[in-house]
Design a protein that fits this description.
The protein has a domain at 86-241. It is globular. The chain is mainly alpha-helical and 246 residues long. The relative contact order is 0.10. Helix 1 (5-24) packs across helix 2 (47-113), helix 4 crosses helix 5 and helix 4 runs antiparallel to helix 7. The two termini are 21 Å apart. It is built from seven helices and no strands.
Amino acid sequence: MVAGPGELVTAVKVDVKRLHESWMELIFPRQRGTDDTVLGKWKPSTTGGKLRYRLWGLVGLLIVALLYPLAVVGFAARFYAERLDSAATRLGIVGVVLLTALAWGILTLGAYLREFSDQGVLAVAAASIVATISSALAVVFARVDGRPVTVLLAYPFAVTAITLPPVVAAFYSPTLASVVFPGSESLAAWVLDNVLFVGGLNDYIRSNFELQGGAYVLMWFGFSLPVGWLLGLTVSLANVIRPSPE
């Protein structure tokens, strides 16, 4: 059922309120979920305390304005992550490995039966190995108890299972290589010029490293880490604002 505009506005107000209260509770006690309690929300009684309380609240408004869009991404990421996790739980680690290997194996067999070149078949086979290993590692780390392990390891390997197979396949497919490698170089140049320019880090990387061979794999694996961490953190943020029902 699709929520109407009024319900959507109400939900956003509730989310923003919870996020701001969570921020306030980092320093001040009894801030979140106290509307229906006897004691109510804690507020300072001294002049200095009131000033600190208000200043911290103003900073929190800015933080909330920056974080809430990420939380919206987290809601969507959590939706799909929960369904994938549910499927992985039913299948088990061995089941995930077998299903992934079966799916990619069918693709490899299809490439062979359609009389692809030897390079094309090798490309699909190499991609299947990478996808299978990455998927298995994502499931293993997701099963480990604790949100930090899930964020630090499970999400990055899940991203790797998506981004790395085409890169590995490009080593065996000239057609794929003509797209993947130039695109990788353009992305690397943008990151060096717009992200890693602090302290001349981009000049150091350009002087000491060349983007060729296995460096493409390392580059995309390196990208999967912050992307996976960002997804994991947005899901964690979504859980803080609107805990997922158990």
